[in-house]
Design a protein that fits this description.
Blueprint: H1 15-48, H2 56-86, H3 88-91
């Protein structure tokens, strides 16, 4: 059975580009922290809009829950894009696969 052509290796990007990606990631996370802060404020305003007093424990739970959820979600998505743009995804190889799906040599 014919074998597939091998995928050529791409040249690694210089170290300066990788530092640029880290700076871009930090800048993006700054914006995401601002988005988390705005989300927390909007959630607290929504809770206050019902007219009932909001207990302190509920305010703390809202701040922590909404804030960390937005930060974790946006942080993970930013890491996916950072990994894709910086070339780390191309560094991961799984060996040479045979046509039958096994990884053993022929």
């Amino acid at each position: 059975m014919p074998r597939h052509d091998p995928i050529p290796n791409r040249p690694r990007r210089p170290h300066a580009d990788r530092v640029d990606y880290r700076a871009r990631f930090r800048r993006t996370m700054g914006w995401m922290a601002l988005a988390a802060f705005v989300s927390v404020l909007l959630a607290l305003i929504y809770l206050k809009s019902f007219g009932d007093p909001v207990p302190l424990h509920m305010q703390i739970a809202t701040i922590l829950g909404v804030g960390f959820t937005v930060l974790v979600g946006t942080g993970l998505m930013a890491l996916v894009f950072l990994s894709s743009r910086s070339g780390h995804d191309e560094d991961a190889t799984f060996g040479e696969w045979n046509d039958d799906g096994s990884d053993r040599p022929r």
